[in-house]
Design brief:
The chain is mostly helical. The chain has helices at residues 2-15, 30-61, 68-90, 94-121, 123-127. The protein has a domain at 37-125.
């Protein structure tokens, strides 16, 4: 929801033009999309926190190589994405705001792509029947037991 509303909002703000020379916005839904984007971001942060405790942390400690690159990319782009999102709301300087908004858009697209790629790479794991909350873990053979 957050990614979709952000992309549609930036499209309306930057690439649409109104016929009215006195209009402040380019499309009547533009302010509503911005509100949807800003209000859905805390839900996304909360979801990321849940995923971080239940999935990301355990996956980084395990030996599962599948999905590692896309998951790490999604995780590492998420933090600057959140930071630029907060800074956009408080920065006043036009140039800084321009740099932040394009950075936020690029990071948002990259993070969304990484999450979708991560989901695609791990698709075979979702088909298996596992107990609720279980993480598929490869067991390392200890050299002392061999």
């Amino acid at each position: 929801m957050t990614a979709l509303s952000g992309v549609v909002y930036i499209y309306m703000k930057r690439f649409m033009e109104t016929d009215d020379p006195w209009a402040v916005i380019n499309h009547p839904l533009e302010p509503w999309l911005l509100k949807l984007h800003v209000l859905s971001a805390p839900a996304m942060l909360f979801a990321f926190g849940l995923i971080a405790t239940n999935h990301i942390w355990r996956s980084l400690k395990s030996n599962i190589p599948t999905g590692r690159k896309s998951g790490v990319l999604a995780t590492y782009t998420f933090f600057p994405l959140v930071l630029t999102g907060y800074l956009i709301q408080v920065v006043i300087d036009e140039l800084s705001l321009e740099i932040l908004s394009w950075s936020h858009l690029g990071l948002g697209i990259l993070c969304t792509w990484a999450v979708l790629a991560h989901r695609y790479v791990l698709k075979p794991f979702f088909k298996k029947k596992t107990r609720k909350g279980a993480l598929p873990v490869q067991i390392k053979k200890n050299s002392l037991n061999s």
